[in-house]
């Protein structure tokens, strides 16, 4: 795995500009804070939704035989850009000990369920 952060680009502790990992790319469905029954976990609570969303990403990775370090790109959709600090805390905890993936953060008017505050889309490189 190689992290790429070319000189001249803003350097940030929340992501790498590019992450190269060999394997087969998997473009997963965006993950939210739904439980296994489709109920929103943490309605109105960004910290609870971040935690459950990363828990769901962990479950998806386990199903793929992958780890957080196999994620090369994330796109985080939020209904309020003020949630950035909570999302960064959850992200740092989830990726502890890993090279951070490339990342995009997008403010949106809404998500699939009005109770959802964020959605995280990932690209995973699965070892072949």
UniProtKB/TrEMBL annotation:
Stated name of the protein: RidA family protein
One Pfam family hit: Ribonuc_L-PSP
One CC-aspect GO term: cytosol
One Gene Ontology molecular-function label: deaminase activity
Entry's family note: Belongs to the RutC family.
InterPro entries for the chain: RutC-like_sf, YjgF/YER057c/UK114
Lineage: Bacteria, Pseudomonadati, Pseudomonadota, Alphaproteobacteria, Hyphomicrobiales
Superkingdom of this protein's organism: Bacteria
Gene3D superfamilies: RutC-like
SUPFAM superfamilies: YjgF-like
């Amino acid at each position: 795995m190689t992290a790429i952060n070319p000189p001249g680009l803003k350097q940030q502790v929340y992501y790498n500009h590019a992450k190269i990992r060999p394997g087969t790319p998997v473009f997963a469905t965006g993950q939210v804070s739904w439980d296994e029954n489709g109920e929103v976990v943490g309605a109105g609570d960004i910290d609870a939704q971040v935690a459950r969303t990363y828990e769901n990403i962990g479950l998806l990775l386990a199903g793929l035989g992958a780890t957080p370090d196999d994620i090369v790109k994330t796109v985080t959709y939020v209904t309020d850009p003020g949630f950035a600090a909570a999302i960064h805390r959850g992200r740092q905890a989830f990726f502890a000990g890993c090279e951070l993936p490339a990342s995009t953060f997008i403010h949106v008017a809404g998500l699939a369920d009005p109770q959802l505050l964020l959605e995280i889309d990932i690209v995973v490189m699965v070892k072949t």
